Fold this sequence. Notes:
With about 400 residues, this protein is of the alpha/beta class.
Amino acid sequence: MKKFNYMADRLENIHSDIRGPIFFRALEMEAEGQKVLKLNTGNPATFGFKMPESIKNQIINNVEKGLGYCDLRGMPIAKQAIVEYETSKGVPGLTPDDVFITNGVSEAASMLTQALVSDGDEVLMPSPYYSLWSNSVIAAGGKPVFYNCVEELNWSPDIEDIKSKISKRTKAIVVINPNNPTGVLYPDSVLLEIAEIARQNNIIVFSDEIYDRLVFDGKVHNSFAKLAPDLDIVTLNGLSKSHCLCGLRCGWICLSGKSAKMEELNKALVVLASVRLCSNALMQLIIPTALKDTDYTNEMIGETGRLYLQRKACIEAINEIDGLSVVPNDGAFYIFPKIDTERFNVTDDKAFVRGLLEAKKILVVAGSGFGYTKPDHFRVVMLPEHQTLKNAMYEIGDYLQTLKK
């Protein structure tokens, strides 16, 4: 009798270590009554971040308006608010027809890769990378190709490495800025070099800017499309992080560039959006209000804000621990510490993460979960209160002492 495989072959290389086997072990431990500090997921609500009052009032007062299907691209008032926001950041030439509202950036990435990528096509993306992008490309039948980001250069992309990996099958290049998992903000000079590569090779840029409003120390995020207005650029953004609304699944796609291939991409997205019917309608009602409420986000990242203080506490604690180091993050919710493997017996980062979970009840994500090839990094989500976070870093340092060579 023929044996059927009921899992599609394309799923073989799809993974998410953020919610992978070690995460499920953490859930088992919690079910057993153990308390686990989960520093694996950038989910602010888990750590007591509340919905902005302006958004709560908008939902309460308009909830009935979100019950029906809406325009497949998105509600007109929401699309117009997005156009105004992205235009204020310098994204050129946007109209509401260039905007697609999605159920988070996750759906946006999936739709984009399905729309653009054919079997065997390649998409360049950073290493370390957020696995959403590699998984989306694989699911669409394409091949993710990774360009290196260099820790010694504050995790900036290696421009020569990008150039060496362009091929005839390259359809797009992904830029995540601020980056996940490193939390760094790329200098404009680096973005301009990437833009020149895209220009010379006639490829589309996917610019994931979900953390554009979560940037510390007075630094300014410049949209890629502002820096390269002549290019075909897809800007992705949303409210999940800046307004702590992960569960509402609010994201969007903006297409800038009027070339024939961008027109085709727009048509392909219309097809996918129509099959999907529409994104969360209730969520769309809050977009205009959220994009006007800058105080909520600014309070988090200001020098007395919770997110700023948590970042400070985390970095200070890491710097006190012999054998740990970190490039300070410029933004986002993450830092990417490095283990001194010459001092500690760490040869497998996933084994390190599992051992830390069992010994200290702290869950982080191994660097290999972000495609990093050396076994000496892990990602920390810096969302708990600052003292909790500081204590967790000390506990990680204490666990490392048990691994001394």
